[in-house]
Fold this protein.
Amino acid sequence: MKNQISLYFVFLCFLATCFMMSACKSKKQSAAEQMVLQWVDREIVFPSSVTCTLYGKDTYDKGCRALHDSEYKVLVYVDSAGCSDCRLKLHLWKDLMAESDSLCQGKIAFLYYLQPKLNASKENASKEMEFLLRRNHFDYPVFIDYENQIGRQNELPVEPEYQCFLLDQHNRVILIGNPVLNPKMWKLYLSTVSGRGESAAQSRTTIEVDKRMHDFGLIPRSQSSEAVFEIKNTGDHAFIIHRVHASCGCTRVDWDKRPIRVGGTTKIKVQYTPGQETSFLKSISVYGNMEKSPVLLNIKGNIEN
């Protein structure tokens, strides 16, 4: 109980720091404090009949049930008012999930409850959701809540910044706040779960990148192209890539989530899928425990008509 009270006051101090810059922000601070009072230690009730899928199409009930049994869970709720690519921000969530795997060693599961647009038929809503998930290469289970059961049963907030929760194993709210919209909130999530959110940043190292720009030249529009960047750990500590952020969903990035030993190398693979543009210049930001973070990588090229 003492730990819960202590965490509560730490969270309030965090919110106060974020919102004490002006009178207008003072109102936001008050609203945030009320939201904390309302939600911290409250149990989230999960509906049993919501479809769990991969890419919004293939059912994946067994894997989704396992997610609910995790030690910690991040509940991400997106209602129909914002069920679009810009509100989902799937490429950013992929980055946070990768960082979570690196720092928290699988302690956190992510529960994505998405409600398609209410004015669309179930068939059209399903097709739109499948399109968004595949375009962002989001191969993680999601719950498609056509009737907004989780929102209605729990009376979840309507403000996007409060539609995300860190839950314990018993589905009780530990923290409330969207880390995609507020990076400081993500640090609080990590430090709450593992206590390593700050320590990883303190053991800094140096790195060398074989190149900062990859020029594809002229590539066909009908297929994806891949670039590889190699990074060497030249410092005195293990090199840990916390997350990698691509500037758009057309770019897919793969990297090794394990720490890289001193003197070791790792590769970052960047896959670009052409859209309607005739030329492109995309950036990839690599965040980690190097002295200067992030490191910016770039790809460019032209596309055949």
About this structure: The CA atoms of residues 49 and 149 lie 9 Å apart. The chain has two domains: 42-200, 207-303. The chain is about 30% helix and 30% strand. The mean pLDDT is 81.
